[in-house]
Amino acid sequence: MAIEKKFPLPPFNEETAREKVQLAEDAWNSQDPDKVSKAYTVDTEWRNRSQFINGREEVVAFLSDKWNKENDYKLKKELWAFSDNRIAVRFEYEFRNAEGQWFRAYGNENWEFDENGLMRKRYASINDLPIEEKERRL
């Protein structure tokens, strides 16, 4: 069995940390749960708001449900800090719910990677703000 690797690999410098953040943003904006899940270890651990998610299968289920509810989803991530095998990001995303209400979600994520560049831990703190369509930025 081939060893999975997701470049760039830790330890991160500013350039590789920024690249890792952009790759994550691009993957999440694809809204493809299977594609996104491949960036995580098979036993990844997440805290997303008040939910605890463990393993790729739960990641796929979580993201599938998320993107079924969050229409016209668009995300922007920004590097906040990095060291060795960890990256912290700030982010915002916008979406519309089934009733047509727009939201902007703000938050921070702390990421920890294994030696093969797969994310083994993701801790996300997120707040939602209802917005009018004319207030959209993304």
TrEMBL record:
Give the transmembrane ranges: none
Give one Pfam hit by family name.
DUF1348
Q: What is this protein called?
A: SnoaL-like protein
Q: Which organism is it from?
A: Flagellimonas meridianipacifica
